[in-house]
Design brief:
Layout (H helix, E strand, L loop, with lengths): L9 E7 L5 H9 L17 E7 L3 E7 L7 H15 L4 E6 L7 H13 L2 E6 L10 H12 L3 E3 L8 H11 L19 E5 L13 H12 L3 E5 L1 H10 L6 E4 L4 H7 L6 E3 H9 L2 H8 L10 E6 L10 H14 L4 E6 L12 E4 L7 H14 L3 E3 H8 L3 H11 L1
Parallel strand pairs: 1-3, 1-4, 4-5, 5-6, 7-8, 7-9, 9-10, 11-12, 11-13, 13-14
Antiparallel strand pairs: 2-3
The chain binds guanosine-5'-triphosphate and magnesium ion (MG).
């Protein structure tokens, strides 16, 4: 089983009317029985995420969705969920059937998708039961009109499936692959020191994803990673006969680490590195400035991408609110959301503070940042807000300012 984290995989969503064969296409593309197929319209209800290894493309996540023509109150709720799921889609396959005369709904969705900047591909499924061959001309025209490539397939007989799979990899957006985490900030052969406190929030027996990914990125770039706790950091630094190129710390021990690390060694945090890797560091750096204007009673949204069980003195639930209130010297009105439910209406918030986003992909993080930008609400992340409340934002953001 491939262990590429879900957040680093190309996300391909499949949308279309009920019963067009969306689930069957996923099964055909992957040669596996991953989605339930049935002749009953409305089989797929909530979006279904399937991590797969795809020939030529490597690790991907397929997102199977409910029909875009689903009806009734539950139907419209399902459509909303599909829309939310599309926020994470790097590519979207719009599936239609050969004899469908009315493609106005598909056109509406395509125009919405174009705004979301997801790469779009059209596939015509069930060509094995087309009433006539007329559909080809009609769809070539549709493809020209919308400027989107179209492919003809049958999930049942397998016709055109290999070609569609190859085309997915050919048309995959080049931008989905995230940049380096830290490798581009330091020279090959240089030393990066990682500071990882083993506190109550640390999971038993393992490191967390951003720490593992940072270590791997250091190795990919032929640098050297040394990992230590904050209590042993001072001795670690003394034991090195070469100045480290960077120190990367968990934001929660920023203050301690800031005092230990000499000023001539660049210092940053995992969550700040993740902010750049996952999203738009410039926008998040701009967003953090909003704390200077926060007043007692202002509404602040804290967004977590995963649905972990909050622990005692949880970073998002307790520490950040406490540090922020002490920074502004007054009480704030906090709300929290977790998982996929990023709100549509953000206008009531004075600022949004997002976690590092290790459980979501770059596309979803960027669309959350975009949503805030459109609503005129500043967004920043845990690492930057902690640095700002501890008065060391300038120091930890210097690394990026130098690299521009
Ligand atoms: N003849 C033929 N039947 C197909 C093809 N692809 C799917 N089907 C059939 O069409 C029906 C619907 O397939 P699904 O994959 O469940 O369709 P869906 O779009 O996921 O449907 P919902 O989840 O209900 O929205 C099933 O009976 C499939 O066996 C195809 O290429 N040819
Ligand atoms: Mg289905």
């Amino acid at each position: 089983m491939n262990k590429t984290p879900k957040g680093s995989r190309l996300h391909i969503a499949i949308i279309g009317k009920r019963n067009v064969g969306k689930s069957a296409i996923i099964n055909a593309l992957t040669h596996q029985d991953v989605s339930i197929v049935s002749s009953h319209p409305g089989t797929t209800t909530d979006p279904v995420y399937k991590a797969m290894e795809l020939h030529n493309l490597g690790p991907v996540v397929f997102i199977d969705t409910a029909g875009i023509d689903d009806i009734g109150a539950i139907g419209s709720e399902r459509i909303k969920r599909t829309e939310k799921a599309l926020e994470a889609a790097d590519m979207t396959l719009v599936l239609i059937t050969p004899d469908d005369e009315d493609l106005s709904l598909e056109k509406e969705w395509i125009s919405k998708l174009k705004d979301k900047k997801t790469k779009i591909i059209i596939a015509v499924n069930k060509i094995d039961i087309a009433k006539s061959q007329d559909y080809k001309n009609k769809l070539f025209y549709f493809s020209k009109e919308t400027n989107i490539p179209v492919f003809f397939v049958s999930a049942k007989t397998g016709e055109g499936i290999d070609n569609l799979r190859d085309s997915l990899s050919k048309h995959a957006p080049s931008s989905w692959e995230a940049p380096c985490i830290v490798g581009d900030l330091i020279e090959p052969g240089s030393i990066a020191v990682l500071v990882v406190p083993i506190d109550i929030e640390a999971p038993k027996g393992r490191l967390i994803l951003p720490q593992v990914q940072t270590l791997r990125d250091i190795l990919d770039n032929n640098s050297v990673g040394i990992i230590t706790k904050e209590s042993t950091l001072s001795d670690t630094l003394k034991s090195l006969n070469k100045k480290p190129a960077i120190v990367i710390t968990d934001s929660q021990v920023f203050e301690t680490v800031n005092k230990i690390v000499p000023k001539n060694i660049p210092l940053t945090s995992f969550s700040i590195l993740m902010a750049r890797y996952k999203g738009d560091i410039e926008e998040l750096l701009k967003g953090v400035e909003a704390i200077k204007k926060l007043k007692p009673g202002d509404k602040v949204l804290i967004a977590e991408a995963c649905t972990h069980h909050p622990v005692e003195d949880d970073i998002g639930r307790e520490k950040i609110p406490r540090w922020l209130e002490s920074y502004i010297n007054g009480n704030l009105d906090f709300s929290w959301i977790s998982g996929k439910d990023f709100p549509d209406n953000l206008s009531e918030y004075k600022m949004v503070i997002h976690c590092g986003g290790c459980m979501i992909n770059r596309k979803e993080m960027i669309s959350r940042i975009q949503k805030c930008k459109e609503a005129g609400v500043p967004i920043t992340n845990y690492g930057l807000i902690i640095a700002a409340t501890k008065g060391i934002l300038d120091r930890v953001s210097q690394v990026f300012i130098n690299s521009r």
